Amino acid sequence: MASTAQPMEKDLHGVSTIQKIMKEAVQMSQKEEVELVAMLKKKGYRDIFREQAEKYCEETTIHGVKYLARERSAKRWYWGVIVLGTFCSASFLIYGVVDNYFRSPTLVSIETTDYPVHRIPFPALTICNLNKISNSSLPPDQQTVLGRVVYPNETEWRQRVLDALEIAYMDSCAGGRCPLSADSCEGDHCLPSAETRRRTHDIPPEQVRKIMAMTSPSCDEMVVACLWRGRKTPCSKLFKTQRTDLGYCCLFNAHYDSAKQDGVLYSGSGNKNGLTVMIDVKRYEYYLSHFLSVGFKILVHGTHDEPEVRQRGMAIPPGQEIFVAVTAEETYTTARAESSFTPEERNCYMEHERALRHADTTYYTLANCLLSREAQALVDRCGCVAFYMPGTAKICHEKDLPCLQTFLHHLSRDFNLSAEFWEHCLPACDETKYSTELSSSLFPSQELIKNEAFSDIFKAIVTRMCASLIGVTQQQSKECSLILAGKGAEELLANDSLTEPLYPLAVNYARLNMAKLHVFFKTNSVTRYKRDLMYTIDQIIANIGGLLGLFMGFSLVTFFELIYYFVLNLSPGSRGSGGRVAPTASPRPAPAQAPSPDTREGAGAPVGSGAPPG
């Protein structure tokens, strides 16, 4: 039993010793604190802080600070102004860096000026005839428009169709007069007459849009021949009909059904790698236009942009060969810029981040957003949208025209209203912008049209001329009938005696009605921009550290020096160089070892005494 109890007594004795040591340590710490407080009261907090500050100024790595402690009078003021000035300058520049980081965290910079042009989508092209209604298409078939014959009298049906079209194409007054005789001016915009409104109130807006599509110049009539990258291509495969603010037009390489890039055409640089089309204005079909001119309007735009031809299109006259040289700029956003910030912070929308209420495409672009906001403002004001606006909102009818005309008139003059649209729309994060340069020459050449190299162009012109029968004699009319029927056309055109009289007629018809258009990339490389983080974490630390180091010699070690001098050296129990501030306790004798209360006679010495058991 004695042998078993002896280890237990030793363990208890060791625990008691540890407790005594801890108690003494606490008492010493408390005593040092009391001594420090007493000394601070005796010397004063201000004196202690001044003493420590002087020592810090003597030993710090910050430029110029040591002279503040070392020099006196004027020299001290001199260095004080310098240190304060450098501190304020560094603070001002650092504030600019930090503020710029939070206000504009992304930066658009040039990544390369030699990005291959064949990696850029070929632009979309919209071609519109200035004429909005073809004479020969009036009136459209009732069965197709209404689903049945409602008006047995063809004259009455024609008049109702014209009234509906006049309302749909209502425009501003020109010189105090409207382009349509049945209309009247009110202020700067046209209003339909009471009789016109009465005859059209029972035609639904959807049928009005269908009438517009059926009576507009069709793409088959307007686009004669097409070459894509030097190869003959059926125009019907390249162009489709699209509703625009200038009526129904022909659209090339535009994709609105989805945001995918499938089917988007790409090309190289130069005329042979672009699009070439021959277009026919058919001036003899003109019935209604808002311009006192004959020709086309074209617009080169992004493949997902809704075309606003009337506002931004370029006029093309007949009798010209037009060369449209296109340059492009592409901007893309890096993945880290996309994931690190909200759209407002990075100042752009990704494709999936913004759904447009009024759009024919799911692809977000700035142009589509602005048009959608305009349509929404019109819905809020009038409860309907103009015929050309995208989406599925209700189309304005005759009773809505006063509100519609007033709004569009107000929009064209009130820049504050347009500014509101911009507040809700941001650029697309990934976008391609196109710019154009136009040059032209007379088309066709009377001297060269007989050249065998241009025989295809001559055949196309003669075919169009024969279809119109304008300036064609009775004998030539017979020949045209054979050409249009496709019977012996090659033989007729190969016979000089038959074709010789057709040359001047073809030249005259082409100069009055036709134009040749070339659209191509001007250069084989473009500028590509990158939207990325303005500063990464390591860059902003480097910028701030560089400014502090340049102006003040401040570094990360300087920060720890501040902690050392003004925290650690003022804390209880500090030693070494901090002994000047924190008092050091005088050595005291070691306390006598008291016998353990658990020590029993004959059990042996306390644990740790080194004496063997008795």
Structural features, described:
The chain has 614 residues and is α+β, with helices and mostly antiparallel strands. The protein has a domain at 2-101 and 538-580. 44% of the residues lie in helices and 17% in strands. It is built from 23 helices and 15 strands. Strands 1, 5, 6, 9, 12, 13, 14 and 15 form an 8-stranded mixed sheet that branches. Strand 5 and strand 6 (231-232) form a beta hairpin. Helix 6 (154-168) packs across helix 8.
Features:
single chain; 614 residues; alpha+beta; 5-stranded antiparallel sheet; 23 helices; 44% helix; elongated; disordered C terminus
Low-confidence stretches: 172-177, 575-590, 592-614
Largest sheet data = 8 strands, mixed
Helix content: 40-55%
How many DSSP H or I helices? 23
If you average the pLDDT, what whole number results?
78
**Share of residues in strands:** 15-25%
How many beta-strand runs?
A: 15
Using the alpha-carbon principal axes, give the shape: elongated
Radius of gyration (CA) equals: 44 Å
Main structural class: alpha+beta
Query: Could you tell me how far the N terminus lies from the C terminus, measured between alpha carbons in angstroms?
Result: 17 Å
